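Margin note from the TA: students keep mixing up input and output lines. Inputs are the sequences; the output is the structure of the whole complex. Example:
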Amino acid sequence: MSNFNLTKLIMKKIFLIFLVACGMIGLNSCDKDFEQLNINPVQPPTLDPGFLFASAQFYSFLNTMNFQQALVQQVHSPFTGVLEGGNHNALNDLNSNITYNFMFSGSGNGNYGPVKLLTDILDQTAGNDSKSNLYNMARIWKSYVYMVLVDTYGDVPYIEAGKAYLSNTFLPKYDDQKMIYDSILIELDAASKALDDAKPIERNEILYQGDIAKWRKLGNSLLLRAAMRLSKVDPSKAQQYVTSAIAGGLMETNDDNAYVRYNGTFNSPTAGIFQGTERANYYLGAPFVEELKSTDDPRLKFIAVKYESPGTSDPGAADTDPANQEGMPFGYNESTIANAPGFPGKIGSAWAYSQVNRSTFGKIDAPGFFVTYSQTQLLLAEAIQRSWASGDVAAVYETGVRAHMDELKQVSGSADVTVSEQDDYMLANPFNPATALEQINTQYWVSSFMNGPEAWANFRRSGFPALTANPYPSADPSITDGFVHRLVYPDREKSVNSTNYQEAVARQGPDNMATRIFWDTP
Amino acid sequence: MKKRSRSAIRQMQPILLWVIISLISGKAFAQSITGKVSNDKGEAIPGATVAVKGSQAASTTNVEGLFSINAPGTATLVFSSVGYLTQEIPVGGQSTMQVTLASDNKNLDVVIVTALGLRRDVRKLGYSTATVNPDQLTTARTTNLGNSLQGKVAGMNVSPPAGGPGGSTKIRIRGQSSFGGNNSPLIIVNGIPINNSSNSATKSGDASSGNNTGGSSDRGDGLQSINPDDIESMTVLKGATGSALYGFRAKDGVILITTKTGKGQKGIGVELTSNFQAEDALDFTDFQYEYGQGEFGKRPTNTSEAQSSGVWSFGEKFDGAETPQFDGTSKPYLPYKNRIKDFYRTGTSWTNSIALSGGNDKGNFRLAFANTDANAIMPNSDFRKQIVNLGLNYKFTEKFSDSCPANYSNERLNNPPQIGLQDMSANTTIYTLANSIDVAWLKAKYKDENGNEQPLARFTNRNNPYWVAFNRFERQKRDRLFGNVSLRYQLLDWLYVQGRIGQDYSNTPYEYNRPTGTRSIGPAPTGFNGYYYQDVTAQRERNADFLIGGNKEFGKFGVDLNVGGNSLFQQYDQNSTNVTNFYVRDLYTVMNGQTKNSNYGVGRKKVNSLYGALELSYNQFLYLTLTGRRDWFSTLNPESNAYTYPSASLSYVFSENVKLPDWFTFGKIRAAYAEVGSDTDPYQTALYYSLNGNPLAINYNGASYNIALGNSGAIAPNNTLRPSAVKEAELGLELKFFDSRLNLDVAVYDKKTNDEILNVDVSYSSGFNQTKVNIGKLQNKGFEALLSVIPVKTQNTNWEMGFNASYNQSKVLQLANGQQRFDVGTGEFFGTVSHEVGMPLASLRGFDYARDDKGNIITNGGLFSQGEMVTFGSAIPKWTGGWLNTVNWKKLRIFTQVDFKAGHKIMSNSNLNMLREGLTQSSLVGREGGVVFDALNADGTPNSTAVEAEQFYSTYRATNIATPFLYNGSFVRWRTLSIGYDLSDVVSKSFIKGLSVSLLMNNVLMIKKYLDNLDPEAQVSASDNFQGIETHTLPTTRSYGINLNVKF
């Protein structure tokens, strides 16, 4: 009996030890896996910075239809609510935060924030000789991105921006806008010069397949653009960099144009506006249509259209006859537009005003232009006019105008402005040295159609075209001269990055739509 | 000894064989004994247990105290009932017995299941628990188990699914313990955790590509895989101390479910239950029916105007004149007042279950099958589930036993409605439809001759609800198996050892489309437009644990010690693909899409734990329990990945120690303190990159190139994360008077959450949207009370009344980076849910009117404008509670429940839309001559400018002003009424042993509410990040049903 008990007791003990051991072994062996287990098996912890660069470029083209395009009176929606903003000179964070959010972190845009990506690329490639071309291309591109940011908001985080991961800087300080522009000029100049054919070429980029010559032209053309921004505020610095840009070599044909080639998979961000939910709600602005119509501009028939059924996905017959086009006047909303002089009535839920042609600029794969040959020629014409460069201003002006007419073929193969049409137009609208700045910059306005940030910046800088102030009755009270001079910082930034926000506001003036960017002097 | 080991071997035969044997041999040698059990006053004792000593055979007395049991003539019967002394009487060949039980005021032992599956006498516990009577879950049955818990437990706040059957129930215990969206309690089934994550209702999708359809339906939670008929007991561990042994999983409390095993069944028992319910939408709308469809005071004059204004009722006064309609016809201009009843159909739900159970003195089993077919009130939306539940336990020897509970479910959810958003939501269109459109016309023409969506309104995303119901689809299937195998060996009389392994595995295919021809979608570059998404998710949670426990008594002292360990492994795999641009119309497959995006997501994590619980008792009145747990996390930096969670609780049964009057039956004071926590997801400590699934294909200089688009995440990683810590102290008092006819259980608690791991907003200019940090501190303080009374207890009548109430006050104490507030969710139209320092959790924020210094609303041209963003109040109810009554009168049983929530706010996005589109009564103001808003001009003079009505009301949308759409969210609701009748006597002469029938009604009456036009419970429910922001959900329903229960 006692033997049995003993055996039983031993058996029990063995069982107990076995069970505890199982448990402990399980625990110990797991501990070793811990580090391995917490490494994501399906996402890389490092990535070729070239892959990031293509994204930084691609996601730099923004749909700014509700503010910038409306502020230059080219595109208009009468609606209040979510579409409101530039159409009524009204505050609407939803639309004014796009440039900030998309450019910095890419929030709301797949998180492909160009500033985030470019900061990472520059960190990864700095001092790496084999990546020097990528490094310099990234400097050029960062300068483009920052021109848009400063032109929109004024002071923005620059030195500390994009570094949440690199240095745990979660709440970056805002930098002085003038300082940022100084840096942009230096960076564009230096980076364009530092591009080197002999160094490895970065093929994974969306503009030129890494073509160094074209990149240099882009860098210099951007430098010209940045320099010309200072035309009023610092002419001597403007001239200095204009000279440098011309010496470095500007864009020479439309083949040099920097633009995103959208396709059936990667659609233009403006396509949702012209083809999707809101397709019945956007129109061409009356001043824009009027300008093109009054000059018999051959581009009008490729831009403006009246559809038979604007509210549907298949809009039916398209009337592109320039004579029938009329833009929607500013100053009205969805309920008061019926009171506008010459109100053309409704077509279903839409109004009978001209819209953006859905087979050209409104296409699902309409290209997104950043910098064009036409814009560059027009800026050069102005520089010549201001005697900051040598050349025949009339000829350069004409090249710039014709370049944009030719450029429409890059928008849509069918948009062919023939040479004879161009000749007719140039003949009917000759260059007049007395109105040189107005003509050049009005053409720049046409040439920058659908490139909202650039059209708006150049309009504020040059004061042309001579648009009439938007007469909308309940515009934001901060606006005094009828024009919006900057967009306000995102609401989110006011609460999240409050201290730095306050510091920037104290430095540059009230955070409203009247405070001017440093280069925008009356 | 030899003989015994031989019999042991025999008993180790396969369990199936044993089941068969017990089937055959069940009734051998038994004789039938009947009798009555009464108390010393001669009153019948219903529900007393009559057991055959030394076997599993048992029976209970009916309401008249009568019992019937089969037992050998040599057996001894054991009679027991709560509140009475147990008595043993040998059968001695008797066939009838009259038994009198003496009452025992001391013996109030109620044994419940506590953490780790330890069974404990409630009187010993130093922390608050609650048990839910499973009968109440089966009588007032709901399709999702969680929904039946509403109003039943003090301190538990239950919100019903907003998406109909198959949706998820939100359960919160003692407030919301974290800033994050998910504060659901841990669900433990038979000792092992199961996955209760909700697949639900967050706004997602990519609006810019026109594909913002996804993920806004509620696809259910983990609790719905359990059939209430299978539940033997349910315990709720409310505080941190009760759940402390679950360490990092314990911050939100624990619901412990034990499923039936067939215990107490002699021979084979068969039980059938059948439940049928029908439900109808509740219509709380109180719309205007004076002015019909139209805009700016004009009715449509042609078809295209009718197609533009289908969701506006700013037309003309009704006159019955023929007026153009969206479908191309003309119809009399008249109001249609029954949109809710006309669109939503009668939902039906059939649940049938059969359970087989049996056992003998070696073990028992129960095998149950349940089938539920539920048709939602939303046309073409339904939910089906089949559940197989197995309970099995067996004693290999006297000391060595196992149990093996398992639950398999197959759930199919078909077209759950989109809720809480505008696009592709039938609810949104129905609730905003012009009041002169008959829903029948929408049904008759929801697509045009080309098969595309028929235009109804200039808002292209206000879809025809039948287009949504019939052309959109969304399907989820879930195969799920969870269960465990548990072995237990009683080493010595006072020492046992137990090992368990449990797993919860599910595989869930899911798909949805956005149909070709939907108005709001742009044309496809090539092929047909539309969108199709498909994914398959596999989830696995595996727990292996061991437990060694012993107890010894030393004179007046008792010691009970349990030590154990657990290894948790969780795995998540998801393959997903979405496609657009279809080759063939209306064929929604991955192969048919020309543009494809694929993704694969994975997550794996482990947590290893060791824990122990020491319970010390003195002289049956003083109990001290100490527990400790240490968890090691794979998800944290290996340098600092281990954390410890202690608890202590003390309970003093003073009624055992102090001389009290006779009517004072029982008294106990308890105090407890514990620290628990929560952990984080895998892969949060390092930055990861990704590549867009599609290359950017471009043509450049005549050649084609594929450009790779790389990216990094949106959340800056953090390698210094700690698990969060929840520290909770509670005090409680339990009192019972008059032989337990009056019972009170109260608890007060103070719960502080520290270091919660959360994504917090950083400046977008930092390049990232958020970073993961240990954020701030928050507090929940409150009390809970449960008062149960038995006002009447006679031979024929038993009336039990329970009243539970709880109060919880939350407060944000501190946020990371010195932030004042951060936002967690934004409404579809307006409103934000924020956590704000110094305020309760879940502050509802929105814009107020622009006001002058004195607070007067100022206008410009008769119109108000947007003012400051202000905090209106918390979305979390401070008060929740219920009043439950059960009355048994002879064979009739009535159960009724009234419950309430109070002290919280709702922001109604629906009321904004219904006002700005001219549907509500309040939109009648200013129809003729315009609205002269009662406010001041900027110069301080009263406004006298009239603004056209539609323009005035639509300005609320333009300015996002929330002030007029803020409501008190409180309500009192008569939740349930059920009436049952026991027909067992009628059929007692046949082979049927028991038969009962009950009728029930859920949502009997809304006694009080404050929200206009809607039910305050009709809200997107699953996540805490959208709470209080009401936006066009499915209406709530009233259901009527019948339950049938048959025992063989």
